[in-house]
Design a protein that fits this description.
Strand content: 35-45%
Mean pLDDT: 86
Helix content: 10-25%
Low-confidence stretches: none
Distance between the termini: 76 Å
Number of helices: 4
CATH topology: Nuclear Transport Factor 2, Chain: A
Length: 170
């Protein structure tokens, strides 16, 4: 009887197969701006680029403009959510952001989600998508509250583009 139980246990272990499950780590389409014109698959981006983008995001909300400069390339292409067009921001100084925040007393941001996105084959380039609500208290005591979807582009460890979409929260 002991031999039968032993054989049954051995047969059970021998017959067990290891299952390999493949997980697709890339998908969708990302239309690139390179000369190939070939769409690439999206994938999860770099964790270090995510940290850079979040430090930049937090620096704006905390009104730490010098920190924003440290995290940026010399020129950052800014696509504001409340204006048409693209602004080339010279980050050798803080004049643009000082002007933009000149009427602010404080900024309160509530983060909803963050996703770093890269494309297959790209190196040192991540687009960090951030969804948040921003409440601004102005120096005159009034407030505004808006919902943003923002993409912060990080290339070679520096922010080089910020694209915003905005809608009123209330």
């Amino acid at each position: 009887m002991k031999k039968l139980i032993f054989l049954f246990i051995v047969a059970t272990f021998i017959s067990c197969d290891t299952k390999t499950i493949e997980i697709n780590k890339e998908g969708g389409t990302w239309n690139s701006w390179d000369e190939s014109g070939v769409s690439k698959k999206a994938t999860i981006g770099s964790e270090s680029d995510l940290e850079i983008a979040m430090a930049f995001y937090n620096a704006y909300g905390d009104m730490e403009l010098d920190k924003m400069v440290d995290l940026s390339e010399d020129i950052v292409k800014f696509h504001p959510g409340n204006l048409a067009g693209v602004v080339d921001v010279n980050t050798s100084n803080t004049d643009f952001v000082v002007e933009r925040q000149s009427t602010f007393e404080s900024i309160k941001r509530t983060l909803h989600n963050v996703t770093p996105i890269s494309t297959v084959g790209s190196e040192n380039y991540t687009i960090v998508s951030i969804n948040f609500t921003e409440e601004i208290t102005y120096k005159d005591g009034s407030t505004s509250k808006d919902h943003y979807f923002e993409r912060i582009h990080v290339s070679n460890g520096k922010v080089n583009r910020v694209v915003q979409w905005m809608r009123p929260s209330e």
